[in-house]
Amino acid sequence: MSAPVISLRGLSKRFGPVWANREVDLDLYSGRVHALLGENGAGKSTLMSILAGRYSADNGTVIRHGREVSFNSPAKALDHGVGMVYQRFMLIESMTVAENLALTVGKKYGRQDVDHEIRQTAEQYGLAVDPEKRIFELSMGERQRVEIIKLLMLDAEVLIFDEPTSVLTPPEVDALFVVIDRLRSEGKTIVLITHKLEEVLKLADDISIMRRGRLVISEPIEARQMSRQQLARLMVGRDVVLRVDKKEVAVGETVLALQGFSGDSHVGGPAFTDVTFEIKKGEIFSIIGVAGNGQAGLVSAIAGLTRAEAGTITFAGTTYTAREWGMAGAREIAYVPEDRYHSGSIASMSIADNFGLTRLQAYKTGFAGMLLDREKMAADGSRAIREHNIVVESGEDRAGTLSGGNLQKVILARELTRNAKLFIAEQPTQGLDISATEDIWRVLLECREKAGVLLVTGDLKEVLSLSDRIGVIFNGRLLEVIDAHDSDQVDRVGLLMAGVRS
Amino acid sequence: MIEDLIFITQISIKSSVAVLLATVGGIITERSGVLNLGIEGMMLVGALAGFAAGHFTQSPMIAVAAGTLAGGLLSLVHAFFTIALRSNQVLSGLALTILGTGLANFLGRPLIGQTGVRIRQLPIPLLSDIPVIGEVFFNQSPFAYAAYLLVPLVWFALFRTRTGLVLRAVGEDARSADAAGVNVELTRALSVFVGGLFAGLAGTYLSLSYTPGWKETMTGGQGWIAIAMIIFCTWNPLLAFFGALLFGGLTALQFFFQATSMDLIPSYILKMLPYLLTIGVLVLVSASSRHRKSASPADLGVPFYREL
Question: How far apart are CA A328 and CA A331, in angstroms?
Fold first, then answer.
């Protein structure tokens, strides 16, 4: 193989106490597709954002054509031929395709030449777009094409795609693969950040796998004839599944039952369609899926934050239609949302205040319940801090100053005290370190003794460690519900997440 | 009757020049994503600086330059706080108005009742001879002619040049503009400064031409009208012309009713109308754009941070 186009050496990046990347070495070659695999939060996107000049590394070097370079802005990286197609497209929605491209490449081409250049590039690589359309009028696939054209017009040699298929429809995915194939044959270097194994097997020449910020493997795909199963294992690191004591708990009455539940996504990503499942007291039911497959919309509809379109929901014996549900449900469900800093807590308020936030009824006092019993709130907050090993100076600390793990424990502790029949935990350990993860897992298992638990996550390890039953969501549909104790079936979860049903 | 109408229209234009200039400047600033509520303050400082420079030098050119520049300089305070320090744009803008008003009233005290230079109407040969139109449009002060030229010029710059594209991109989506290699901070700082120059020029018009002389708080809220007008004309300089004319027309009607002792519409209602109409336009704009972003620049008022 010829010399690498770009090499990363000893790259490290920390966000607060968390290592997003640690001592990463990586070589990229021209005319090859390099798949960068890993779970959510493994550090893939951060690593590539460093290469594309959006983040700066704390340590390490980037070597381009044998010379050390530093990219401290996206523009600088583009000057060196490195460009990235982000998951959130960097396009100005109210402007036309031509305007967006002129903005980026205008210095290189005169305004008049931009249109001509767009058409030429589009034709050369099979990227059909209408330059006069405004971005908000375009489908996600078309927007992505605009991003690719942008990079090509800037003569990018290294094109990084961050989860490029996560927002595409299946035919758009096929079209993208054709484009990537053509880019490869023109000698471009392609990096594909993904956790969809199908894509890797279809396209990749080289493969790297990241886990918790480190590169575990980086080699040509032919080096070992890897199967999907092996890849999944490498990616998730099944061998490092944490051990948790999982008590036998008697399964009780049905707490929540969805029947043909469908709705708009409201919160971005695809809608969810015809979802049917039930959760009983005493079990953890997991919904696992790659981010953006409809689970966000589904959870917010179950939690009553948004309204579903069709189907019924039965909660604690009462059946509601999708439209009746809503605030009716929200009051009786304990919910730990994915975004712990914005939806889960109020950063500028104290821990004690946050602790009482979803249970203000319990602290009514004086003047016909118009006053708050702040002493009791503070006392309850302090007790929760002790019971859950929450590391803080005092209950008066602002929630925003806590680490992710400690804040998550505060939120969990708060929701636990609501004694709800249903407990929803959405990506509860995303971005947390091992010890915090373990604490949270313990709480969830405890919780299942008193309630039904709905765990929504993209973390296979988490699902395998905690669940009693596992529902796999793909493209808005619950593909299958698998008994977590059936080890033959459980091996298929990873494939189902990638939409493979075999 | 016709006489009255021509008179009212002529006064309308006269009364709209300051608001028009300040509005166009505000559009430039807001299109880049920075909200500047300090227009009233910058106008007042511009008015004083223009009058003072005229008073001491007797040179109209120096007076106009000084007034314009004073508005620009004051706007840099806002630029520093909102762009370099990323503080709250609403607070900084309000502070700028309070600072500008206080400063101008304090420093201007000795100049009350003094005489400065006066920039009079300057009929344009030939054009001013056109019946009605000539009288209405081309028998005005040079400030009005400058405004006639600046409005389409700013529109052209915003929507037909690369500079304008960059400026609008920064106001619509600073992060994407940054990724496209645009210097967001510099673009915003320059837009704030240019907006300040326009406000300064608007103030200078008031103290040198519209009501020559220096009086405390002589802008009389025209800076606030300009802020309403920016929204009213949906951030489009060409529409600003009509918006400002509407305001000028209402002012002219007040004069007319006063002069003729007719009291068809109370002047308080007339003074209220620009704001009421702005609210009306806001409702219309947001109702018609439920599925689309409103006409407002999407990143207006949002400080820009580059991730580390």
Answer: 6
CA distances from B123 to A359, B142, B149 (A): 74, 9, 16
Contacts with A93 from chain B: Cβ below 8 Å: 172-173, 293, 298
Rounded CA separation A121/A130 (Å): 12
Per-residue pLDDT in tens (0 to 9) along chain A, 502 residues: 678 999 999 999 987 777 889 999 999 999 999 999 876 667 888 899 899 988 889 999 999 988 898 888 888 888 899 999 988 888 998 899 999 998 888 766 666 678 888 888 888 888 888 888 899 888 778 899 999 999 999 889 999 998 888 767 667 788 899 999 999 999 999 999 986 777 788 888 999 988 878 888 887 877 666 666 677 667 666 544 455 677 778 888 999 999 999 987 665 556 898 999 999 999 999 999 877 788 888 998 898 888 888 899 998 888 888 888 876 666 788 899 888 877 888 888 888 888 888 878 788 787 877 888 888 888 888 888 888 878 777 778 888 777 777 888 888 888 888 888 999 999 888 767 666 777 888 889 988 888 999 999 887 778 888 999 999 998 889 999 998 888 778 878 877 887 777 6
Which residue range forms the structural domain that includes residue A41?
6-240
Q: Among A183, A216, A240, which residue terminates a domain?
A: A240
Q: Which of A370, A390, A419 is the last residue of a domain?
A: A419
Residues from chain B contacting residue A73 (CB–CB below 8 Å): 178, 181
List chain A residues with CB under 8 Å of B291. none
Statement to judge: residues A25 and A169 lie in one domain: yes
Q: ipTM of the predicted structure? A: 0.80
All residues of chain B having their beta carbon less than 8 Å from the beta carbon of residue A104 are: 180-181
Which of B165, B172, B308 is facing A102, going by the closest CB pair? Answer: B165
Q: CB-CB: which of A56, A74, A94 is closest to B308?
A: A56
Closest CA to A476 of A231, A327, A301, A303: A301
User: Tokens for A341?
Assistant: 């800093």
Long-range contacts of A377-383 (CB under 8 A, 24+ apart): A377/A352, A377/A353, A378/A352, A380/A352, A380/A355, A380/A356, A380/A417, A381/A351, A381/A352, A381/A355, A381/A356, A382/A352
Residue from A168, A167, A178, A227 nearest A198 by CA: A227
Please report, to the nearest 10 degrees, the dihedral formed by the alpha carbons of residues A416, A418, A419, A420 taken in order: -100
Does A407 reside within a domain? Answer: yes
State whether A224 and A264 are in the same domain: no
pTM of the model: 0.74
Number of domains comprising chain A: 3
Which of A18, A91, A92, A115 would best serve as a mutation to test chain B binding (most B beta carbons within 10 A)?
A92
Residues 182-201 (B) with a CB less than 8 A from some CB of A: 182
A188 in the same domain as A253: no
Helix B142-160 with B237-260: angle, nearest 10 deg: 150
Interface of B with A in 248-287 (CB under 8 A): none
The CATH number covering residue A120 comes to: 3.40.50.300
**The domain made up of B2-288 is a member of CATH 1.20.1080:** no
Contact B173 A92 (CB under 8 A): yes
Q: Which of A78, A94, A111 sits opposite B298 (nearest CB)?
A: A94
Task: Answer whether A114 touches B (CB < 8 Å).
Answer: no
Contact B307 A78 (CB under 8 A): no
The answer as to whether A306 is a domain residue is yes
Whether residue A120 is found in the same domain as residue A174: yes
Residue A67 lies in a domain: yes
